[in-house]
Amino acid sequence: MQKGYVFMFFQWFLPGVGYFLAGKRARGFLVGFSIWLMFAVGVLSGGLGYREFSKESFLLYYLNLFASFGNGLGWFISLFLGEGRLEDAARITYEYGGRLIEIAGLLNYMAVLDVFDICSGRKK
After folding, report:
1. In this structure, are residues 115 and 4 in contact, taking their beta carbons and an 8 Å threshold?
2. What span, in angstroms and rounded, lies between the C-alpha atoms of 79 and 97?
3. How far apart are CA 31 and CA 36, in angstroms?
4. Is the Cβ–Cβ distance between 49 and 99 less than 8 Å?
5. What residues does each domain of the chain span?
6. 13 HSE (CA, 13 A, CB side)
7. Could you list the pLDDT tens digit for every one of the 124 residues in the chain?
8. Which DSSP string do the residues of the chain spell out, in sequence order?
9. What is the pTM of this model?
């Protein structure tokens, strides 16, 4: 059970690695590749310029933050890449990019839970 939490952390921090550690290499490659691809396309589409906080949209800001945090290392990378990139918000694709980054994070949350189920024996 203890190793399940370690695998969960690795899955969150580096999407796909938790599956590799649990012995599910094909699933790890597929899920990891999908998450990193969605994150990369989201960044290239200007999705990092989406974060903006205002009194009217505070709930959306925190939902965006929660979903983006699911990318693990990608979230930390986006902190450095997103600094001073407000010009991305002027791009026509920035909202699509923001959604892809959020979906990648939410998909990784589901993968973290899946890795835990595999490690606990509830799923093969």
Report:
1. yes
2. 15
3. 9
4. no
5. 2-120
6. 6
7. 688 899 999 999 999 999 999 999 999 999 999 999 999 999 888 888 766 656 677 788 888 889 999 999 999 988 887 655 556 556 777 788 889 999 999 999 999 999 999 998 887 7
8. -HHHHHHHHHHHHSTTHHHHHTT-HHHHHHHHHHHHHHHHHHHHTTGGGG----STTHHHHHHHHHHHHTTTHHHHHHHHHSTT-GGGGGSTTHHHHHHHHHHHHHHHHHHHHHHHHHHHTS--
9. 0.86
Q: For residues 18 and 28, is the Cβ–Cβ distance under 8 A?
A: yes
